# Entry
Amino acid sequence: MNNEKIGLELSVEEVNLILKALGNMPFNQVYELIGIIHQQANSQLFDIDSKEVANELQLKNE
# Structure
């Protein structure tokens, strides 16, 4: 497998559809990919949530 990286922008619904499709494949072929998708998605969603909370707190303190 090539180690070259690409960036994709997908909705949560689209990512969930991809994960559902991967779930129909043999686990030993896709578990690492599923883990990578979960890790990156959680990182991005957590980062967005943190920024939103910080912005809300800043607005309340002004």
In short: The chain is about 75% helix and 0% strand. The first helix runs from residue 12 to 23.
